[in-house]
Amino acid sequence: AQSVAQPEDQVNVAEGNPLTVKCTYSVSGNPYLFWYVQYPNRGLQFLLKYITGDNLVKGSYGFEAEFNKSQTSFHLKKPSALVSDSALYFCVDSGGYQKVTFGIGTKLQVIP
Amino acid sequence: NAGVTQTPKFRILKIGQSMTLQCTQDMNHNYMYWYRQDPGMGLKLIYYSVGAGITDKGEVPNGYNVSRSTTEDFPLRLELAAPSQTSVYFCASTFSGGASTGELFFGEGSRLTVL
Questions:
Q1: Residues B10-23 pLDDT 10s
Q2: What pLDDT is stored for residue A31 in this prediction?
Q3: Which of A66, A70, A74, B57 has the fewest CB atoms inside 10 Å of its own CB, making it the most exposed?
């Protein structure tokens, strides 16, 4: 499977402010990009994915991500953060393979 | 629909004991996966299955076994439990195309402690 980089272990944002969780992917091959969220003591939940098509992908809970080929990025964004968005976020590039693995993710803390 | 159901949610084992983590899904998904999540280590793939009767190793298969006799069930067997197998285990499933293009549906996890 392909690998991605989430350069920030933790992101802090004030409630009501826009949030961004960064993800960059490797250039080799075609990226198949996903975002998942894990709330405390829960399983992961799918948010959105980019396989082909429009570069701007809209997903669950008001999240969106833009596939940027020139910058090899797939950052997750939301216009206005909620305290309930506090969770662990995983960016994944399956690379078209079955053996999908997840990195350590980025912890998002939304401060009231 | 219940989705992906894992049992038990919590279990404490002694070193050398064996046990089976159960996973069942009611979405008629042909692809199923077992992951383990350790603090600060992300999720690592243990085994996966592309359909009944077909299984394959992931990144960290040692110390585990799986079987897939039906579409719904994908149990994970731990033989001779070791402290290194203390972890949170997640089962996941998805539909045609597999995890390469399809979103994974996860269970709530099984927290295993080996003492």
A1: 999 999 999 999 99
A2: 85
A3: A70
* Structure tokens, B110: 């099984």
* CA distance readout (Å), A7 to A11, A32, A45, B47: 10, 19, 21, 28
- CA dist B64 and B47 (Å) reads 8
In angstroms, the separation between the Cα of residue A99 and the nearest Cα of chain B is: 6
CA B68 to chain centre: 11
> Which helix (H) or strand (E) element contains residue A23?
none
- Give the span between the Cα atoms of B111 and B95, in whole angstroms: 26
Name the residue of chain A whose CA is nearest to B44's CA: A101
Q: Put residue A53 in one of left, alpha, beta given phi > 0 → left and psi -120 to 50 → alpha.
A: left
Residue A9 has pLDDT above 70, yes or no: yes
Smallest Cβ–Cβ distance between A98 and the set B35, B50, B109 belongs to B50
A-chain CB neighbours of B35 within 8 Å are: 102
Give the distance, in angstroms, between the CA of residue B13 and the centroid of all CA atoms in the same chain. 17
Give me the pLDDT at residue A30, please: 78
Percent of chain A with pLDDT over 70: 97
pLDDT over 70 at A1, yes or no: no
Facing residue for A94 by CB, picked from B35, B90, B100: B100
Dmax over Cα atoms in chain B, in whole Å?
Answer: 39
| C-alpha span between B46 and B34 (Å, rounded) | 5
**Rounded Cα gap, residues A72 and A59, in angstroms:** 20
Confidence band of A51 (pLDDT split at 50, 70, 90):
confident
